Amino acid sequence: xSHYQILIKSITKRIPTTIESNITKEEIxxxxxxxxxxxxxxxxxxxxxxxEENIRKWANILNLDIEKAYRLYWDDKYLxxxxxxxxxxxxxxxxxxxxxxxxx
Length: 104
What we know:
elongated
């Protein structure tokens, strides 16, 4: 099983069934994206009233530490990681090119 599949299973297990039926496109959208340098979980607010509170609520439900969240685009994260690890920046980020690592 890939790291991507493990992450998806982990996140879906964290959503209580009573809440799972209440997730609607009007409230949030959860996306998991695999990049050559790491996997990103995105919680996008779809509710215009108090977006910060809504994101914090869902991060809490999913047992995620919002203080570790990266709030910029992943293109920005890629540039930041490349600069900090002295790795060449490529216009097209591909899996077979040198890439930075996400380090906690």
